[in-house]
Specification:
The structure is a single chain. The protein is of the alpha+beta class. It has six helices and nine strands; from the N terminus they run E-E-H-E-E-H-E-E-E-H-E-E-H-H-H. It folds into two domains: 103 residues, no CATH class; 54 residues, DNA Binding (I), subunit A, CATH 1.10.30.50. A hairpin with a 5-residue loop joins strand 3 and strand 4. The radius of gyration is 20 Å and the shape is elongated.
């Protein structure tokens, strides 16, 4: 359990890294970070340990007590954005498209997906972020060497260059928690963090 994963946010709630539970707890203990729970409440180490803990698999057992495993922490002194570009790799394409066929919308194991050129190479398409998507084998065969319009197929969304360098830090075996998606998806993040206008 101590080697599990924790999402690290900067002070603006932007994801910057994924770290181990052990390192996350050390950062919180030293006051470098605070824990963010699923209700977006923030805790320092003392207040987090004072929470009542049901004895489940999602806690670390100490000698006389237990501590909940944090899944998201926020750095207290870091407000910068990661400056690295996202590498154009098969892994990062699959991560961007969430292992989902961009034609039928079904989620697949990576072994049942491939990379499809939206505008086929035979029609002058190129291999870059904005012309490739994940596609299941069935949809890829149906589309063939045609554009989606020619094949009468619709893309779920247009391919794009990912903005978050977080994609660079997630391995294919990395477990992603549902709680993390609000921070990874810019639309969800904007929904929860945009300042509301008073009537």
């Amino acid at each position: 359990m101590i080697e599990g994963s924790v999402l690290v946010l900067n002070k603006s709630y932007i994801p910057v890294h994924i770290t181990s539970i052990k390192r996350a707890i050390c950062l919180v203990f030293k006051g470098i970070a605070k824990i963010v729970d699923q209700e977006y409440q923030i805790y320092d180490f003392q207040s987090w340990t004072e929470l009542s803990v049901a004895m489940t698999d999602d806690c670390i057992h100490l000698t006389e007590s237990a501590i909940r495993v944090p899944r998201v922490i926020m750095l207290q002194f870091y407000d910068k954005m990661p400056r690295r570009d996202v590498r154009f790799t098969r892994e990062n394409i699959y991560l961007r498209d969430r292992n989902t066929c961009q034609y039928c919308g079904k989620h697949y194991k990576r072994s049942n997906l491939n990379i499809d050129h939206v505008v086929p190479l035979s029609q002058g398409g190129q291999t870059h972020w904005e012309n490739v998507v994940c596609s299941c084998l069935t949809c890829n065969g149906k589309k063939g060497g045609r554009t989606p319009v020619q094949a009468q197929m619709k893309l779920l969304r247009d391919p794009y260059i990912p903005k978050y360098s977080l994609f660079m830090h997630i391995s294919p075996k990395q477990k992603l928690f549902d709680f993390w998606h609000v921070y990874m998806n810019p639309a969800d993040f904007a929904y929860w963090n945009l300042e509301l206008q008073s009537e």
